[in-house]
Amino acid sequence: MPSISIELVPRSAEQLEEECLALKARFPKLEVANIPDIVRMPLRSWEACRIAKRYFRRVIPHLRAIDFCLTEAGDIEEAIAGFDEVLIVSGDPPRDFSRRTFPTTSVDLIAFVKQRFPHLRVYAGIDPYRSGPRAELGYLKRKREAGADAFFTQPFFCLHLLEAYISMLSSYEVFWGISPVLSDKSRGYWEATNQAIFAVDYQHTLEFNQSFARAFLNRLAGEHSHAYFMPIRTNTVTYLEGILEAGPDKALPATTAVAEG
Residues 6 or more apart from 135 whose CB is under 8 A from it? Predict the structure, then answer.
């Protein structure tokens, strides 16, 4: 069975605490959370993860490479302080051009972090829509050579595409992403912004998305395949109730495989 992580959006400290409490009350064995670094939100990822650490055994902050200068190591040290795992992504340029960014790539930051903090488990991103598989696998290889230990993917909305990437990445430790899409507007965002590919029979209902997620989990096999849920504009507990078994006597998948891998 795969390990499970939940991706939480840090809209505010109060909202994040409420969501963590609700998730742990309903799914007490859900032990892994990751939090994206969204520049328009009031909390940076690592700030939000320090709140989530009160509720989850493992938390994984996201670091945007373009936000860090490699000659200013103090900023990086401050972001990763107290964490055992981080996810490093390239980061989209901010809409506010007054916001300072740097020409640091994800490969640059991965190499820097692994050299300075070899104990830290570093995840990198995989985007099945960014380019063709050959180019993406080449990019993945460069990240691996820089020191990436494991990977997080963009969400999948087509099981055939998922299976193709699972077969190509069978030797890698991967958290496979899934996100509910419940409206034409949401689907339009994924297709226009991320060039996402949807199955021809994909439906924008909660029931279909829960069924799709159960089928998604069934496709994952082996200790190197794990899943993370990204319920961006969906009630997280309601969404997961139709997918995961809840309650103290029900077992979620074990979460030790990634830490030990």
Answer: none
Helix (H, G, I), strand (E, B) or coil at 157: strand
Which amino acid does the sequence have at 34? Answer: N
Q: b/e per residue, 200-229, with b = 16+ CB within 10 A?
A: eeeeeeeeebbebbeebbeebeeebbbbbb
Could you tell me which residues come within 8 angstroms of residue 120 by beta carbon, excluding any fewer than 6 positions away?
A: 80, 83, 84, 85, 86, 113, 114
pTM > 0.85? yes
**Mean pLDDT per 10-residue interval, the chain, length 261 residues:** 87 96 95 95 96 97 96 93 97 81 97 96 97 95 98 98 95 96 97 96 97 94 86 93 62 36 28
Which runs of consecutive H residues, i.e. helices, occur in 195-254?
206-219, 236-241
- In this structure, are residues 3 and 257 in contact, taking their beta carbons and an 8 Å threshold? yes
The three-state secondary structure class of 62 is strand
